[in-house]
Amino acid sequence: MDGAQKTMQQMTRYKETVSLWRGLSGRIREMLELIELAEAEHDSTMAEELARDVEEVEGELENLEFRLAFSGKHDTGNAILSLHAGAGGTESQDWAAMLLRMYLRWAEARGYETEMLDTMPGEEAGIKSATVSVMGEYAYGYLKSERGVHRLVRLSPYDAAHRRHTSFVLIEVVPDLEDDIDVQINPDDLRIDTFHAGGHGGQNVQKNATAIRITHMPTGIIASCQNERSLAQNRAMAMKVLRGRLYDLEESKRDESRARLKGKHVSAGWGNQIRSYVLHPYHMVKDLRTGYEVGNTDAVLDGDLDSFMQSWLKSQVGEAQS
Fold this sequence. Notes:
Blueprint: H1 2-41, H2 44-67, E1 79-85, H3 90-109, E2 113-121, E3 127-135, H4 139-143, E4 148-155, E5 164-175, E6 190-195, E7 211-216, E8 221-225, H5 231-262, E9 273-278, E10 284-287, E11 293-294, H6 297-301, H7 306-315
Parallel strand pairs: 4-9
Antiparallel strand pairs: 1-3, 1-5, 2-3, 4-5, 6-7, 7-8, 9-10, 10-11
């Protein structure tokens, strides 16, 4: 029953898209005829009205063309976003916390719901890692543009000499898979550890060991969850994260094979930086994949990411989407 409902919803989206394109095509044909008429009759009033209509249609066309960027099978669904601080101790852990805040603010502005699944606090400040579920239409479609290494250059607030530091954080984004997506996981390949949910400074925040960590032994992929109330809930959520990461791994392997055939491949691993955030000696955020940059770093760190996401998504139209 659920499968039929999802199919009907997908068909409805396709029909709406086709209807929008056909409607726009009809308007353009009508406008071309009116333009010819205005030119033939030298009607300046009609020409001015048509100029406004053309501008409006151009905006609608741009929006429809942007929709083509969401061609991946999971683009319309929810996402699971993870952050991992790089080497550098407190400096990188603080950068990870800044990025987490940035994405939470972005999600809030778009009306998306978020749920913290797992956090590992830093010893002094910030976070070592965090995993958050982002729920809303096209959450994965947008957030997949953020996969990769994010670099920060600033004067360190944790350095007594106030020297300039460079920090790195790896962002991972996987689709929040529906239950009908088949991902084969052999229970014998899993190592499951339970522990007490922890807070800053290493203190336990629960008396019972409800937090869970699942390691997929063949790949080394780890998924953990400690923010639900029961062990069963944390286990279910950790398995959901694990399924998404294993699925993403297989999709990445397929993408690598296709990319090698086309003569290019760039993974989203530690060796590949996608964006630089410079707070000293000048202010700039630059996406190294598209060349898009802005000078208002405060706005970006407050969640103003749409222009970066759209720039990358537009560059991917016609490319294989995962």
